[in-house]
Amino acid sequence: MRAAPRRGTGAVLAAAFTLATAASAVLALLPGGAAAAGAVQAALWVAVVAALVARAVRGPGGRRVWAAFAVGTGVLVLARLRLYTATGSAVVDPAALDRHGPLVLVTLAGYAAFYAGQVALLRDHFRRLRDPWLDGALGVVLLAAVCSALFLEPLQRATGTGAAASAAAVGRPSLDVLVAVLALTACALVGRRVDRRLALVAAALSVLTLADVTDLVRLAGAASPAGATHRLSVAVDVARLAAGALLVAASRQPAPVVARRRSLRGWPVLMAPLAVLPGSVALLLVDQHRELPTAAVVLAFAAVGGVTLKVVLVFAELLRLLDSHREAVTDELTGLANRRGLLQRLERTTGQGAGLLLVDLDRFKDVNDTFGHHRGDDLLRAVAARLTARLPDGALLARLGGDEFALLLPGAGAGRARRTADAFLTALTEPFELGGLTVHLGASIGVTASTGAAGGDALPGGDVELLRQADTAMYVAKRTGGGVAVYDEAVDRASRERLVLLEELRAGIAAGQLVAHYQPQLEVRTGRVVGVEALVRWQHPRRGLLLPAVFLDLAEERGLTGPLTEAVLRQAVAEAVRWHRAGRPLRIAVNLATGSLLDPGLAGFVQRVVAEAGLDPAALLLEITETTLMRDPERSRRTVAELLAVGAGVSIDDYGTGYSSLAYLRDLPAAELKLDRTFTARVAHDERSAAIVAGTADLAHSLGMRLLAEGVEDATTLHRLRELGVDETQGYHHARPMPAAELLAWLERHAPRSLPSVVLQG
Asked: Is 437 helix (H, G, I), strand (E, B) or coil?
């Protein structure tokens, strides 16, 4: 909202400045108007300096830039006003310059401020400028030498002025040239990154250079007659005011947004020496044929000395950078390349083909924990030395960190890389001697290779992809107990798909994509449906309905069984309440995940869920496996006791597959044993299995528990289980798991309504 008024104000001020400048020129050309013209010009210059000061104060962006330009402009303006008040004329003639030459010479120091402002502008685009003040000093010395050699004596003869006045007259346009060239060079260095401030500063200093060179020509008497000299002086003053206006315009431009400042490299670093050295040498060669003023020769030698200093500084910086680079790509402990060094070498081999080994030491942590980190460091150095002694020609060995090493084999295929890995594994299985101790290690080594673009097998991800493949293979080797594993794309793809599925499962649980299907459980003697088991399914948005075998292990591996169990339990309890209201008060069985019994808040959570839904806890049966119980027997027993206190029942699922069933039966007051399907499937034709089932039924009944057999597939098996004393059965012979909406319809077709009473509270 404020941009338009600012642009309008700027346009008005620019117009006013232009009109005032034109008025001063007209007054200067009119007879008797010199004093008025001088007053108008003085006011305009004060306005220019005030505008630059205001921009510097208004900061913060560019404060140093415009403060420097304000100082430089102010110094030159003060010198101009001092000459005007001393001579009473806007036109500076040789006599006036001769009288006040030292003053004018001192005011040339204002150009140092112009230089500082430009350096500050460049710092907005470049991270570091190397020795900018030394570069500026070299330029000044060379200009001084050239002026001393070529211009001072001719100007003194032409104007009759002394050395100080002539130096002042020549110095201003010479310094104009220096700062103008710097501004134009800055524009070239910035290039496509447009900075209107730099462009306007370059324009201002170019106009100022043209004006001061013209004034030097006038002062030397090259312009005649007298009227032409006066008009030329007026034009010079107008051009100088235009340069001031351009500086003000530059200060009003916004600083560009530079996402990342670049480093100044290459020829720009040596630009000043490359320009100064030939000029200085040329002057010294001229002095051999035509004697130059002593000052010119001294200054030329000083310039050569300055160039030498600059080269020494650049060379020292180069050595420092080389040393810094070496340290940046070297592992301090072993002296091998580090991860950065490996990646840089990998970049250079991209497209050429290479083999890569990733080596992870086995049992290294035991050494650190047992003997201390200093022994661990000794062992890492010993490993590095042993592997280095077996390096193939052209190979690079790197330590990536910890006890992980990598070997790059440029030009090697998978076969050669595998052979090298076998040799490394043999070397690492040999014992290490550490301070009188014998240490045995092993290694897990992942191997991969790329044949490069020429072989039609360039890696899409380049060097990073090659490292990832080796890392994947190394973890395959580690999971299988160590040794060497070669990267397998199919295994890697499956692993990545598994990771994607994990993230989708995490999001799916939160989004309510898990659903429960229900499988009826029937009483063997009467055929009544007494309950259902809730079995989790995942309604995947892309892959459709997924069975637990696809995702349940993944959930257990990554700690998602808690949210999964919660989702299924809430759904199952809510459905049980709806069935009761429909006249089907069924017992509902829900599997508890492996880690659930270790959750101290499980019983409280179950109590809240059934209370919120209004279900009698006695209608809820929680199934736990022997494997779950064996993880932490003491904690499991406490949790089961808490669940029983809540009023829920407990079923021991997959009974017969563990190794401590009798001990758990003694300590856990479970309501049900659930016979594993491995026994059910063979009971009709295997007498040993039948004997086990019969014995288990007697045991369960003796302990006050019922026996449920799952996996009943046919009538023969059902009949045999009835004979052996099984109480309840579940399986495809009765019904497949089905959604809650289909269960009531199935019950209407297959089961009478005379069911056990009870399941709602209140």
From this structure: strand
Superfamily of domain 501-750 in CATH is EAL domain (3.20.20.450)
Strand 728-730 relative to strand 706-710, pairing: parallel
Query: What are the residue ranges spanned by the domains of the chain?
Result: 11-256, 339-487, 501-750
Instruction: Count other C-beta atoms under 10 Å from residue 677's C-beta.
Output: 17
Number of neighbours of residue 762 by Cβ within 10 angstroms: 4
Residues 634, 346: Cα–Cα separation, whole Å: 54
CATH of domain 339-487: 3.30.70.270
Per-position DSSP letters for 72-84, written without gaps between them:
HHHHHHHHHHHHH
Residue in this structure with the two tokens 């209004």, named with its chain if needed: 614
pLDDT digits (tens, 9 = 90+) for 51-108: 888 888 876 667 888 888 888 888 888 877 777 776 666 566 677 666 766 777 777 8
Mention every residue, 6+ apart, whose C-beta is less than 8 A from residue 486.
414, 418, 447, 448, 473
Confidence of residue 719 (pLDDT cuts 50, 70, 90): very high
Q: Which member of 710, 723, 728, 742 is catalytic? A: 710
Contacts of 97 (CB under 8 A, 6+ apart): 104, 159, 161, 165, 168, 169, 219
DSSP states of 565-578 as a string?
HHHHHHHHHHHHHH
pLDDT digits (tens, 9 = 90+) for 613-630: 999 999 999 998 877 777
Can you name the CATH fold of 11-256? Rhopdopsin 7-helix transmembrane proteins (1.20.1070)
CB-based contacts of 312: which residues, under 8 Å, 6+ apart?
none
Q: How far apart are CA 734 and CA 680, in angstroms?
A: 14
Q: Residues 147, 170: contact at Cβ < 8 Å?
A: yes
238, two tokens? 């107008």
- 290 pLDDT above the threshold of 90: no
Q: Is 710 tagged catalytic? A: yes
* Pick from 493, 496, 411, 409: nearest CA to 445: 409
User: pLDDT tens across 418-434, in order?
Assistant: 999 999 999 999 998 87
CB count in 10 Å sphere of residue 403:
21
Tell me: the pLDDT tens digits for 388-409? 998 888 899 999 888 999 999 9
